[in-house]
Design goal:
binds flavin-adenine dinucleotide, 22 strands, EC 1.1.5.4, eight-stranded mixed beta sheet, MQO, 492 residues, Probable malate:quinone oxidoreductase, FAD/NAD-bd_sf, alpha+beta, ten-stranded mixed beta sheet, flavoprotein
């Protein structure tokens, strides 16, 4: 027997960074809204948002080479790099505002300055990196980026990369001191604590099983209490599906027309981790390399300083893999169950098109630990197997949909799918992900609260001074905003 609960304004499904961000924004802009959150696990931030499940990079295109494409004429397109950087500036302004207002304390527990670097080898790649930096340096967002091909300087910036290196292959490395490492789980937990203080009802060990929209537009959300096994129906005017990899199956249950012809392909990940202080203290940077042929953009290898559970560690990876689960704690039936009559052609078309990805995943799946160590040694020549262990990272479910470039196109970005009446929104995909959460959620609010949004704009500008403007085109505003961010987030 299900009992019906009184209607609420907003239901957030999932206790990750996305729900935490949306809830916090809503409470800033419309404090009167009543919000309920349902999470199937016993604590927040245990899936992709958990610090061990993602790479913790505050994505700003200061090191990720896949955000700048080389055009056929040899010029370098930096538009995507600018967009990603601007999105992270929005996140930082929002967190800085919350710190200033006393809603987030100890910012050093979730964000730390860690230089971002790109590392390449070989004449062609060195030439590309030099042209890339020249182009980026013209923009204020990237004006701090330095580059060197001098091996002594490289050793000064990243000792571990040069120790024991005997190869004479040309190499180059960039250095940007404004990079960050973000502990998204620490941040998310703080945001939820803050939401609890604002009377948001946080329901852990509660799994959403079904969603139906009534004729009057209200959503009925069927929730199972995993402690008592009791099933209840909750009513809401607006629902956000922020269930990470599991957003796709929940979206399919809504039956909305926007949920058709969409599929998902899970890609799992592994990191190598080193906790030995004698080694970790020699490296303070996030160093991104170049992706192998066929590798999805998020599988670019990188060597990262991380601050997790109060300790400084080194992570290398991610190595990609395949698991049919949509969540790390999901079921082996997730992929099969997501194939429906309306998306089977979409899914099959993607299978045919993405041969390089399939080959890449098979090659990654068959890697032995010693082969993974060999990959690591292209970054850290002296790495010893006994100092590194394998940890399983989070699951990403890449969106497959029909686009202008044909049926079944694999998407590597983040997709927000919204019902026509704006009463439901689902977040699919995972990259660049958590770093861009605030911008993504502002965009979602604009789509779903069309009438209220124009009234909120003044308040948003107070919270995020660059809202509606491009910092990349306004150096004075960039400098002003960044002074404030540096002070409040203690990332000078
Ligand atoms: C290997 C890897 C590396 C990454 N690196 C970075 C990085 O360096 N920088 C970056 O910015 N981003 C990175 N990301 C992406 C980032 O982690 C994600 O974009 C972000 O954490 C997604 O947050 P979320 O809230 O959407 O999902 P999640 O954190 O996965 O949260 C979803 C929640 O929903 C819950 N849930 C699921 N189904 C139900 C249900 N039916 N009922 C109730 N609750 C449910 C889950 O238990 C989970 O807690 C990485 C991701 C991966 C996997």
């Amino acid at each position: 027997m299900s009992t019906i609960h009184s209607k609420t304004d907003v239901i957030l499904i999932g206790g990750g960074i996305m729900s935490a961000t949306l809830g916090t924004l809503l409470k800033e802009l419309a404090p009167e809204k009543e919000i309920k959150m349902f999470e199937r696990l016993s604590t927040p931030a245990e899936e992709s948002t958990n610090a061990w499940n993602n790479a913790g990079t505050g994505h700003s295109a200061l090191c990720e080479l896949n955000y700048t494409k080389e055009n056929k004429d040899g010029s370098i397109d930096i538009e995507k790099a600018i967009k990603i950087n601007e999105q992270f500036q929005i996140s930082k302004q929002f967190w800085s505002h919350l710190v200033k207002k006393g809603q987030l304390d100890h910012p050093e527990s979730f964000i730390k300055p860690v230089p971002h670097m790109s590392f390449v080898q070989g004449v062609k790649n060195v030439d590309f990196l030099k042209r890339r930096v020249k182009q980026l340096n013209k923009n204020v967002l990237f004006s701090n980026m330095e580059i060197t091909d001098n091996k002594e300087k490289i050793a000064e910036w990243t000792p571990l990369i040069m120790e024991g290196r005997t190869s004479h292959v040309p190499m180059a490395i960039t250095y940007d001191k404004t990079g960050t490492d973000v502990n998204f789980s620490a941040l998310t937990k703080k945001l939820f604590d803050n939401l609890a203080d604002k009377q948001v009802e946080l329901n852990y060990k509660h799994q959403v099983e079904d969603l139906k929209q009534r004729k009057d537009g209200v959503w009925e959300v069927k929730v199972k209490d995993l402690t008592s096994n009791e099933v209840k129906i909750y009513e809401s005017d607006f629902v956000f599906i922020g269930a990470g990899g599991a957003s796709l199956p929940l979206l399919q249950k809504t039956g909305i027309k926007e949920s058709k012809h969409v599929g998902g392909f899970p890609v799992s990940g592994l990191f190598l981790v080193c906790r030995d202080e004698a080694i970790t203290k020699k490296h303070l940077a996030k160093v991104y390399g170049k992706a192998s042929v066929g590798a999805p953009p998020m599988s670019v290898p990188h060597l990262d300083t991380r601050y997790i559970d109060g300790k400084r560690t080194l992570l290398f990876g991610p190595f990609a893999g395949f698991s049919p689960k949509f969540l790390k704690t999901g079921s082996n039936m997730d992929l099969i169950k997501s194939v429906k009559p309306n998306n089977i052609i979409t899914m099959l078309s993607a299978g045919v098109k993405e041969i390089n990805l399939t080959k890449y995943l098979i090659s990654q799946l068959t890697l032995s630990n010693e082969e993974r160590m060999e990959d690591l040694r292209t970054f850290v020549p002296n790495a010893k197997s006994e100092d590194w262990e394998v940890v399983v990272a989070g699951q990403r479910v890449q969106v497959i949909k029909d686009t202008e470039s044909g049926k079944g196109t694999l998407q590597f970005g983040t997709e927000v799918i919204t019902s026509e009446d704006g009463s439901l929104s689902a977040l699919l995909g995972a990259s660049p992900g958590a770093s861009t959460a605030v911008d993504i959620m502002l965009d979602l609010l604009k789509r779903c609260y069309k009438d209220e949004f124009s009234n909120w704009e003044g308040k948003i500008k107070e919270i995020i001074p660059s809202f509606g403007q491009r910092l990349s085109e306004n150096e004075a505003l960039y400098r002003q905003v960044n002074e404030e961010i540096k002070q409040n987030l203690k990332i000078d």
